[in-house]
Amino acid sequence: MSVPAVVQNGRLDLLAANDLGRALYADLFTMAQQPPNFARYVFLDPRAEDFYADLDEAKDLLVAVLRATAGRDPLDKQVTALVGELSARSTGFGTRRAKHDVHRHSRGRKVVHHPAVGTMDLAYDDFALPGEPLRSLLLASRGLGPAVDVTICDLGAGVGEKGGPGRPRGHGQTPGVGRFTLPRGRDGSTRPHY
To answer: In sequence order, what are the residues at sequence separation of 6 or more whose Cβ sits closer than 8 angstroms to the Cβ of residue 122?
Structure first.
């Protein structure tokens, strides 16, 4: 696959990633709390301010996605725990959640500032996985113009190289389906953390 791709669940945990997906979202894979989680990154990790060109838009979207997930199963203890954690640790999460926006994003545009390759203006598509309604495949496509092709190629050039945008190949990775890898937990396992 020649575009960044990740598999995520409704709680916004990254469950698997191809090499380009791991390189694009490298910051998430180095967070202390694993599995990597988009909501924790955006609300609790100061690196997100530099990564997202429009951090407020990213925060609004992620809160709406979490609200939709909680609406599907209000008794899900892991979603409730994540919402509680974000409410307690982030000053802006509760205010955004109080707006009661519900959203499932399936496509759009995202501008990010990647520390290794610079600004990337990406189009993305989020596809629900057949038989797995709470999991989706998020593809950051070539996007808008030839400059994006170059930055994705630059991102890919560093994958597997020591010091490149992704972790060195074989470092804490277990082969998954195709070229996807599963994030490792603190205990070293690759079992999903649902």
So the answer is: 4, 109, 110, 111, 112, 140, 141, 143, 144, 148
Measure the CA dihedral 68/71/76/80, to 10°: 70
Distance CA 72, CA 134 (A): 9
Q: Rounded CA gap, 11 and 114, in Å?
A: 24
Q: pLDDT digit string (tens) for 128-186?
A: 777 776 777 777 765 555 444 445 666 666 554 433 444 433 333 333 333 444 444 44
Structure tokens at 137: 């495949």
Cβ neighbours for 74, distance < 8 A, ≥ 6 positions apart? none
- State how far the Cα of 90 lies from the Cα of 44, in Å rounded to an integer: 7
pTM (predicted TM-score): 0.74
The CA angle 40-13-139, to the nearest 5 degrees, is: 110
Give the model's confidence band at 51: pLDDT under 50 very low, under 70 low, under 90 confident, else very high.
very high
Q: Are 102 and 68 within 8 A, CB to CB? A: yes
Q: What distance in Å separates the CA atoms of residue 149 and residue 121, rounded to the nearest whole number?
A: 10
Measure the CA–CA gap between 143 and 2, rounded to whole angstroms: 12
